[in-house]
Specification:
This protein is of the alpha+beta class. It is rod-shaped. It has one domain. Helix content is about 25%, strand content about 45%. The chain is built from three helices and six strands. A four-stranded antiparallel beta sheet has the order 1-2-5-6, with helices on one face. Strands 3-4 form a two-stranded antiparallel sheet.
Amino acid sequence: MKAVLVICALAILVAGCVADTMRGYVGQDIRAVVLAYGPPANEVDLGRGSRAFQWSKVSVDTTPVSAVTTTDKDRKGRRTTQTQFVGGTQTVTNCLYTFLATWNPGQDGWIVTSFRQPSLDCAIGDLG
């Protein structure tokens, strides 16, 4: 039970770190994010001088393959050995990191005003 609480606490802490990284761009030109992480995967015009910029990160996690070998004896005392391979399953996670920005004609650019916090399974990774 303690292990579950520790894992949950660590996940929340890491999620907070991702939010802190994203929060650091609020008030900056969106080009600062582009310089750090490359061009966005998607831009959505929200109207009234607002736009959403999204970065996508796909991560693939694979469980290691392990071999389980069992040896049995049949009725005549002969041994039979069987090896079974388990694991090797893949989990694919597609995370979207979204920054919201408004057009600032004085700075001739999109200024980050807020962001949408990624889901918890995405927050364990990082934007980069």
